[in-house]
Specification:
Blueprint: E1 3-10, E2 22-26, H1 32-48, E3 56-61, H2 71-89, E4 100-106, E5 114-120, E6 126-129, H3 137-149
Antiparallel strand pairs: 1-2, 1-3, 4-5, 5-6
Length: 151
Amino acid sequence: MNHNWNVYKIFNNGRRAKAPVYNFIHEDEESVASHFENNIKEILVEKFGGKIKENKFSIIRADLSQKRQTEETLEQTNKKLRYKVFSQYLKNTDFGEKRIECVLLFSGATEWKWQWCVVQAGTTNVIKPVSPRADSYEGAHAWMNTQIKLL
């Protein structure tokens, strides 16, 4: 059965555009992402220019809710997912009486690179690094997003 699909641009801050930039008809829900990449994205490039290739998009079936998550809800969801990633790396780790926080850190302790770490609460004292060091903030988030996708 054919469905209408709405394509929304995802901005660099992770928020989705209010209105779709394009809509199309496609039948198979499982192959809609590859259909978009292989066919529809080229139409968008012709319509908006080559730079749009660098953008991320969200594809939502038109007959389903098109509501955007509020920023706060999105941040809470992302925080919960990051803690799930941390919990996988911290299984069987005893921190004793120390209160801990899971953070993205850029300091001398991480050799001035970005790194996801467990730190002592209220300080930047690294108790345990969780991720490899990244040269950029975006690189550190890319590592975390990959780990979240693997959950």
